[in-house]
């Protein structure tokens, strides 16, 4: 689908160069095109529309539906966090960090240890009417990289023997940043009944560690004194959330995160990478 309109390029995120989105704004909405796949998404006062080779690009269609679910919740006071979410026994953790920090790997290790899956990379947080913080997950299974799969035996079926051998031969500094996504079905990998799309938010865990020698350092930090950590937790709204006729939600401001999360206990995990110690600390 290629309408004859003057599309504009939506700038790639920090550290990225590939152009994933072009858009055109009309009087009360936005037309968004994915150059790589040819999918076209429209939204505004007239409703929602997805056009193109949708059966071949189900993940993009699902992402589009989830962005509208996110938008609906933002308009009702939720914050959008760049975090994974896990829960157990009425308690939940938000796991945040820059892209590639290992939050998906840590979340799946915690699921292996008995926790439930809430969300993989986007988490909605709000103050429940009863006073406690609550997190909402997105109805989408995680997409994981080869390093995460090799690390967790319960994900083994996602790779063919040839893929496993090829990835296992890579040195850690090449395997860690490798972007090659595989869909991980939580029920198939970990057993049925392990998806829980809402839970109380008990604490935030923020990964600032690096792939260097040394043990991880786990310590409690007040978010009010660490705006850098708050920045890692905040998620920019992105191309799907801006269009004529759509107001900018308050959650786009860092001050909104400070207000809502001021009393949320936070654990920073710095130093070197050790998922076993991090999992124990989170539990």
3D architecture notes:
It is built from 9 helices and 17 strands. The chain is 26% helix and 26% strand. Helix 2 (103-112) crosses helix 9. The longest helix has 17 residues, at 58-74. Strands 9-7-8-15-17-16 form a 6-stranded mixed β-sheet, sandwiched between helices. A 5-stranded antiparallel β-sheet has the order 1-2-3-4-5, with no helix packed on it. The mean pLDDT is 90. The protein is an alpha+beta fold.
Q: Which class of secondary structure composition applies to the elements?
A: alpha+beta
Rounded average pLDDT: 90
Tell me the overall shape: globular
Uncertain segments are none
Please write out the topology.
Elements: E1 8-9, E2 22-26, E3 29-33, E4 40-44, E5 47-51, H1 58-74, E6 79-81, E7 83-88, E8 91-97, H2 103-112, E9 116-119, E10 123-127, E11 133-136, E12 143-144, H3 146-151, H4 161-168, H5 172-175, E13 182-183, H6 186-190, E14 198-200, E15 203-207, E16 216-220, H7 227-233, H8 254-261, E17 266-271, H9 275-282
Parallel strand pairs: 8-15, 15-17
Antiparallel strand pairs: 1-2, 2-3, 3-4, 4-5, 6-10, 7-8, 7-9, 10-11, 11-14, 12-13, 16-17
Helix pairs in contact: 2-9
Short description:
The chain has 283 residues and is α+β, with helices and mostly antiparallel strands.
Keyword list:
283 residues, alpha+beta, six-stranded mixed sheet, five-stranded antiparallel sheet, 9 helices, 26% helix
């Amino acid at each position: 689908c290629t309408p004859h309109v003057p599309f504009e390029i939506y700038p790639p995120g920090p550290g990225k160069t590939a152009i994933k989105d072009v858009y055109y704004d009309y009087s009360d909405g936005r037309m968004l095109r994915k150059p790589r796949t040819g999918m076209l998404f429209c939204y505004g006062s007239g409703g929602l529309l997805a056009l193109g080779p949708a059966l071949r690009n189900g993940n993009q269609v699902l992402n589009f539906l989830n962005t509208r679910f996110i938008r609906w919740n933002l308009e009702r006071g939720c914050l959008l966090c760049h975090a994974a979410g896990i829960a157990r026994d009425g308690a939940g953790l938000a796991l945040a960090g820059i892209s590639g920090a290992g939050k998906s790997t840590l979340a799946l290790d915690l699921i292996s240890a008995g926790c439930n899956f809430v969300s993989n990379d986007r988490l909605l947080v709000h103050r429940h009417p009863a006073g406690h913080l609550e997190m909402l997950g997105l109805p989408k299974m995680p997409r994981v990289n080869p390093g995460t799969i090799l690390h967790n035996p319960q994900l083994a079926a996602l790779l063919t023997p040839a893929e496993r051998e090829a990835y296992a031969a890579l040195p850690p500094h090449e395997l860690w940043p490798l972007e090659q996504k595989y869909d991980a079905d939580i029920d198939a990998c970990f057993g049925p009944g392990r998806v829980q799309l809402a839970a109380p938010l008990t604490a935030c865990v923020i990964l600032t560690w690096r792939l260097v020698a040394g043990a991880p350092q786990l310590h409690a930090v007040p978010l009010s004194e660490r705006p850098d950590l708050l920045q890692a937790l905040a998620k920019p709204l992105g191309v799907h959330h801006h269009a004529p006729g759509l107001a900018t939600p308050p959650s786009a401001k860092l001050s909104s995160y400070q207000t809502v999360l001021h009393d949320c206990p936070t654990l920073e995990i710095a130093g070197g990478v050790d998922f076993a110690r991090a999992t124990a600390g989170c539990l």
